[in-house]
């Protein structure tokens, strides 16, 4: 079973599908540093580093599943919510261009939770109609990762579009499960981090955080409204702005002081495996890549159920 990946980023969706038994054969992204990370971890995938609008789908090998984590900022409550009026929002129609040529049996989309509500539902209606006009039947789920065993609040919309109505009717999204691991089952506070991550005593950040950290079992960050604390040992959503504003990287109090969490701890909260590595890229880019990615186990769970349908030969 094969996938082709649009807006691949660092490959979180691809990784989840590969863990479910698929093989990624080609991918596309425009971001230089994200492509460096992708190549470092997926050396056997043919990665097209370019603007999707300049990529000719006719040169690509057909795949069983076309995946697309298309830009979410135009639809996010944290962005300007311009939707299809935003040039990035219009990139959704590029996915349809690839679907028209490749005719994949299944298309998988990941985007922000607000996608279904944006513009009073009209945005989602356009997406639905574009797919239905191409004879796809769709199922979608709005899910918070912490309801699926991941210690992070990350609510996203997942859409699976099927060329087969029978397959669509048979498909089930994964069931919710009890959270078994919390923040500090993932982040080890007993291991000292590099000095660069610790806040200097007496600094503005240290004074603010020292006053705010009343529970060292939580994670903290600066927000537009002051210092935000997590609850119940579950991280708040990791955002791409960690790579833009230094103080938006979350902080913890470990056994040695107050420090930022590291890019690898961000990956751990997205539940990437320890084998996933960053190449030599700026640290700000690594943080941004983490915030732009996905919770891998939830993708894997969805992909497993897609794999079962393809394996049962419900298409044709």
Short structural description:
With 316 residues, the chain is an alpha/beta fold. The protein is built from ten helices and eleven strands.
Structure explained in plain terms:
The protein has 316 residues and is an alpha/beta fold. It folds into two domains: 2-178 and 294-311, Rossmann fold; 183-290, no CATH class. Helices cover 29% and strands 19% of the residues. It is built from ten helices and eleven strands. The chain has helices at residues 12-19, 32-41, 92-102, 122-132, 165-170, 183-186, 204-212, 263-269, 283-292, 296-311, and strands at residues 2-6, 23-29, 46-49, 65-68, 106-112, 137-144, 155-162, 220-223, 226-229, 251-254, 257-260. The strands form three sheets. A seven-stranded mixed β-sheet has the order 3-2-1-4-5-7-6, sandwiched between helices. It has a two-stranded antiparallel ribbon with strand order 8-9. Helix 1 packs across helix 10.
Topology:
Blueprint: E1 2-6, H1 12-19, E2 23-29, H2 32-41, E3 46-49, E4 65-68, H3 92-102, E5 106-112, H4 122-132, E6 137-144, E7 155-162, H5 165-170, H6 183-186, H7 204-212, E8 220-223, E9 226-229, E10 251-254, E11 257-260, H8 263-269, H9 283-292, H10 296-311
Parallel strand pairs: 1-2, 1-4, 2-3, 4-5
Antiparallel strand pairs: 5-7, 6-7, 8-9, 10-11
Helix pairs in contact: 1-10
